[in-house]
């Protein structure tokens, strides 16, 4: 297998909005050709592609549900067809439904497992088999794995699984100079985080951060840019808690 050269082709799962959209824009600015993946947000994904192209970058939108068996495979097929061999996979797509453990339905548990664990597992497996040597795999955890807040039981458990697979895959792929890392944000102002929270609760949470603000998608995209770029080569098997110092 030949070694990845920078810039390369990057797949960002769940990049029609939120953190993923910021990562797609940033990686395109770094010179990579970007696959903007979405499950339902076709219009939003097309908007991200249009922004990237307007700024002189290269991108294509690809619909694929990462929670189902062939979603990731189709994504890699589409990426290779559009731009050639994939060098970077960002396993960003995820869902979060908060509830005390006692009230979590089987359906919600299974959905979290299918998308947050299954989608990342299949992404890692596909990348392990299809990424060129020297490639990058960056997955998404959460700072709640450390904070262990009530209501986050199932969601945080899925992200703990992501962290464990990250540490182990880094050892399995190190010989091919593929780095494998996870980014674990604290609160970032996106739909996933803001959904269902009152202004009062948001003010309280904002006040708990040492920097007295929430993260913005671009704060996280910068970390991904570093891990995906040439300067990140010696960082592997790590979980970076990008959260302004909250934990
Ligand atoms: N925001 C935070 O405070 C925070 C903190 C820690 C960790 N994180 C993690 O960061 C990642 C991004 O979160 P976010 O806040 O940006 O979320 P978001 O605003 O809800 O965006 C989620 C993205 O994932 C896509 N997606 C959801 N299910 C999918 C599926 N089955 N297949 C393909 N794409 C799917 C969505 O696309 P569609 O709309 O098309 O479905 C959307 O583009 C997640 O893994 C999340 O757990 C977020």
UniProtKB/TrEMBL annotation:
<dbReference type="GO" id="GO:0004316">
    <property type="term" value="F:3-oxoacyl-[acyl-carrier-protein] reductase (NADPH) activity"/>
</dbReference>
<dbReference type="InterPro" id="IPR057326">
    <property type="entry name" value="KR_dom"/>
</dbReference>
<keyword id="KW-0560">Oxidoreductase</keyword>
<comment type="similarity">
    <text>Belongs to the short-chain dehydrogenases/reductases (SDR) family.</text>
</comment>
<dbReference type="InterPro" id="IPR036291">
    <property type="entry name" value="NAD(P)-bd_dom_sf"/>
</dbReference>
<protein>
    <submittedName>
        <fullName>3-oxoacyl-[acyl-carrier protein] reductase</fullName>
        <ecNumber>1.1.1.100</ecNumber>
    </submittedName>
</protein>
<dbReference type="InterPro" id="IPR002347">
    <property type="entry name" value="SDR_fam"/>
</dbReference>
<dbReference type="Pfam" id="PF13561">
    <property type="entry name" value="adh_short_C2"/>
</dbReference>
<feature type="domain" description="Ketoreductase">
    <location>
        <begin position="8"/>
        <end position="191"/>
    </location>
</feature>
